[in-house]
Structures
1.
Amino acid sequence: MNFPLHSRALLLALMLTGSAAFAADGAPKTAPASTAPAVRPGHAGIASANFLATNAGFEVLAKGGNAFDAAVAVASTLSVVEPESSGIGGGFMATLHIAKDNRDVFIDARETAPMAVNPRDYLNPDGTPNRDAALKGPLSAGIPGEPAGLVLLAKRYGRLPLSVSLAPAIRTARDGFKPDSRLLGAIREEQKNLERWPASAAKFLPNGQPPADGEIWRDPEQARTWELIAEKGDAGFYHGETAQKLVDAVHAAGGNWSLQDLANYRAKERAPIVVDYRGYRIVTAPPPSSGGVAIAEILNILRGYDLAKMDQAHRAHYIIEAMRRAFRDHNDYLGDPDFVKMPLDMLLSPFYADGLRQNILPDQATPSSMLPHGPAHDPGMHTTHFSIIDKDGNMVGITSTVNYVLGSTFVAKGTGVLLNDEMDDFALVPDQPNVYGLLGSKANAPQGGKRMLSSMSPSIVVGKDRSAVIGSPGGSTIITQVLEGILHFIDGDSAQQVAAAKRFHHQFLPDVVYVEDGVFDAATSAELKKMGYTLKPREPWGYMNVVTWDHRDNKLDAASDPRRPSGLGKVE
Ligand code: DON
């Protein structure tokens, strides 16, 4: 059955005003001034997916750095100790609150497609999608954004030279560390792919095997590349020796990067998406992330209901219906704002949400339309998020990724740089889902120099009494995790409770609600099924790292997702 979900064309024509920080063509306007309190916490909180990275952040704070220097230290150290999730060959998105200016900023260090990108490279000779080209080896890799993004962050917002903020990563890569069970598991899982490329095997399979439990593992080539970045900034990666090695390695393995692709790469500042909900101001990721638009659309829909007065089943019902509608728009409209016109004024408008609310039935699921789709893949935990608040009240959330586990599994010889497989985040083959089951439209088709759409949603929630930095990995589930985290935080939950809260997820297609064990009690599940929902149990997902700030007693709190080992939330 096909429901007329919404008459978007008509609404588009009617939308003359909106609350968005964006023009209809996606060009950022200035973000409205923040309402973050002027009081300073006097101490700092960091939560990341690895204790070595959290400690690297505190080391740099102790040297006189601010939250943004600490973020450079955490991100670069994660590149060394959690390479399965993010790193020097990947990209990130960052939401910042600059306390002294009471200003919010978004940094887009997302990868771009090389100019020579050719959609036919992602098809088999019989026209079926070539998933190996999309996910493994150099054709799957976009031009990395992480080095340029960290250089921008340090130079524009940090206090310390890169030689100080990158020092913990360089030291850890050179002296070595004991990989945690997640990294060892990822190397074992991807051993066959790593063996396909000699430099990947040399880095991850010393003596031809994954490192043994408890063995010290070193990455001197990555240390050297970070050193070049510390000395020369962008030029240490995007020009000269490193750039030449990257391009040579990619070509030797059948890829199509050019020196010009690297030289042209720029990290960009964009105006964040800002949405008000129940007295809180949520500052989140704009395109080329779909996350902030979807979160804003969902919150705008939910604004029309009193969730607190509902039973569990109805609360979940309205949240799921809002998720369904936001993900539909995600698939239809969103892409790189530098390449596509997006109706953001419409998508972010409260009037548009009013329209969407009209066809949500009180006791019945709305079936998603029957578009061709494939099963969503296990969202995995390969991407990372960390949150920082410093003693001056600067806040930063960074979600950073090489995309799927160990990215492309391709290491460029002589650099220690593991390349991402972010090209799969484009709609590479029309009407075919990516690894997260997401479908895309022309707006997210691959094109030279274009950024692929992301779900990464680092978010800052600012209230009169409490504020928080929230984010998580998890592919398409990032959006719903962050949304649920925001709702739990606004309901009064602590950092630990927000990170631990059980999760559910709906992404329009496939038309199922993914449920973590224990998220709904038996009666709620029965009621939801009666409303027409298909509930599908899934292994726990996400790796949320949260820092909260209570303005009433000026206390910080930091929590790392209890679902995973190695994470550390710490306040000092
Ligand atoms: O940018 C994105 O949306 C994806 N590349 C993120 C991948 C991810 O979160 C993987 N794992 N959990």
Note: The two ends are 56 Å apart (CA to CA).
2.
Amino acid sequence: MDLRQGIGLRRLGTTADEFQQDLLSSLYYRRGTTVESASPRDAYEALALTVRDRLAERRARTAAAHFASNPRWVYYLSAEYLLGAQLEQNLLYSGTGELASQSLKVLGRTLEEIEDLDVEPGLGNGGLGRLAACLVDAMATRDIPAVGYGIRYDFGIFRQSLEGGAQAERPDDWAFQGNPWEFPAPDDRQTVGFYGHTEPVPGSPTRKSWVPGEIVLGEPSHMLVPGYRTETVNIVRLWRARGSEASFDLSRFSAGQYAEAVQEAVRAENISKVLYPDDSTELGRELRLKQQYFLVSCSLRDIIRRFRLRNEGWDDFAEKTVIQLNDTHPTIAIPELMRLLVDEYGLDWDKAWSITRSTFAYTCHTLLPEALETWPVPLFERLLPRHLEIIYLINMFFLREVEARFPGDSDRLRRMSIIGEGSERRVRMAHLAVVGTEAVNGVAELHSKLLRETVLQDFADLWPAKFQNVTNGVSPRRFMKLANPRLSDLITEGLGDDGWLNDLDRLAGLERLAGDASFMERWRAVKRANKVDLAAGDPDSLTDVMIKRFHEYKRQQLKLLHVITMYHRIRANPAGDWVPRTVLFAGKAAPAYHAAKNIIRLINAVGATIAADPVVAPHLRVVFAENYNVTLAERIIPAADLSEQISLAGKEASGTGNMKLALNGAITIGTLDGANIEIRARVGEENFFLFGLDAFQAAEVQISGYHPREHYDRDAELKAAIDAITAGTFGGVGREVADSLLGWDEYLTLADYRSYLDCQEEVERAWRDPERWTRLSILNTAHSGFFSADRTIADYAARIWRVAPVPVPKDI
Ligand code: 26W
């Protein structure tokens, strides 16, 4: 079959009858059941398969077009993907929403009840994982030939529930009922080695052969990533660890040692068993490094297999391949490609290094020192002996380059070395990522600047051109069209068509409607209807939203001090003309992060105290929405009036929730941190509630010695708030939180308190003027088009990947 002559596939029907026929045939032939006995699950699976077929048809044409054009490929390596629920998205991207709800009638089902069965794959922690999902969506929408590689964890991010106001974690067996959206591809399985030793190869100075001590199999399954309003359908390929055939010990089994017989297989499968729930502190667990190498080894072999389908030799490899490392988690890919090229394909070191270096690019997503991964050399030596040897060689050649450029500067050599010589020798993955890549980028202007001027300054001095910025973005399809259909319809009406969904800068056209009384009325009505749907509190109250992972640098504790101060103010003046406010928190804390879990407990204790207080409850309500995930974000964001982005300046690399909230008409109260700065610059300083120290002032305060108690002593309201916690006012909960604030307050919560409170009064003044507030809201949406993931991908494509779109013809 010559693919250049088209896929030779009969097209699937687009009429209601044809769709219904396909739905019924999925039910009969693939679910093996009948209309009469079909369960809700049968209906869901049959619908999913019917919709999937339509995307798979586009996928086949995409693959044919890509095969024919042999393009330059983008491979996105990420340990995390927060793809969100798939059914609604795939109905939208296949244009079959209406057909589906019609056809389900024959089964006596509604789309709403079926959608509840569509579990989201929680294969990520937070920002980094969701960004990966928004970016692969935008790559497909922009017709960029790309594959996302990841790990198919059996257990995703834990399910959060509140027990007595405290976070409880339960395993997330997300695919327990199966997952209709994935295509297992066992014939593309790969073999991955661990442990063992290396042996010299006679006649070759650099070449070695690695004799692994343990072998596991990597089995892929892929999920379709459709582009919006285009034919392209890319894939995300997720690897699952399996025991090799040899791992089942029949002799032990027949000797009745059943557990031992399968222990090796179990050990193997443990590699992709569960996602590590930490999103800011590296724990240095061996299994995590095994996960990272497993992902990388399977993906690189698959990338080479794909390259070899259309290309000879290695000369074109770097020309046809760019691999983006999503933070340091897949950085072991650099020595792994070197190992494959030198040891398995026999290239000489220099050739292999020039290919490797020009194939990889690295995105850094954090500034927190504790989040920068370093691995103990002994662990590396035991688990990946050959890779450590290669890292030593890379480091040797690198330090020679530094020495040549900065002769005699031994301190600089020690600072820059990939091997940290501290108390324990450690491999610095961020240093390896910078040395082994062509481009390094931060995810917002300030973040990229701080990377160049602080954590990676030495490298920026050596290779200034290597350092770039690519400000994050979000998918307008998921976070506007799917999450907020009411607002999307109103915007489409205001702009005349819905082309803005693929060209978000067109939102600027809404500015002229920011004074139009009837449009403003309808804008308010949309927000109110979304708040009624959310049912989190009084829909006429100011819905004040803080939704993100819990971390002390994000300062949920500052929001809490504001709530406690309001509680005191209202109790001090019950008859006051208070702005009714609903404060909505949502987010998970890493299970071992006790300080963050204490803040969650205190939030719920304060919320309970307020709810039980007849004086305060009519004016103030605290809600904690359990188990924050992509689906819940899609429900909360459209209902938000105020977006809390209050991290200590210089700590939040970018933030993406801030972008989603601004695009949905929420107004930001925030610091000059991460992408807040760019949001404020684009929506207008007068349309943004700014407070607090900026990154340089904050650094100054910390350098010059910070004494949180001084702020406590000189601010009566602050003192009262903290004393209330210490006094046990809120169910006796929160002592640890108060102590840490008065003790060291690492993230300057008390230093920014007064400025924050004053700014919140600004917010209330604006809220009291609905015309003004609606205008602010419309202008935030109008000027946030820049934060589309499509623009982010256009930046990566132009400035880092040097790739061009490959349109997929409708008729191939
Ligand atoms: C080693 C443990 C670990 C795991 C995950 C350390 C660090 C991470 C991630 C990098 C943390 C993360 O999600 N960072 C967030 O990335 C978003 C996307 O770029 C940014 O918008 C957020 O500001 C950043 O905190």
Note: The longest strand covers residues 214-226.
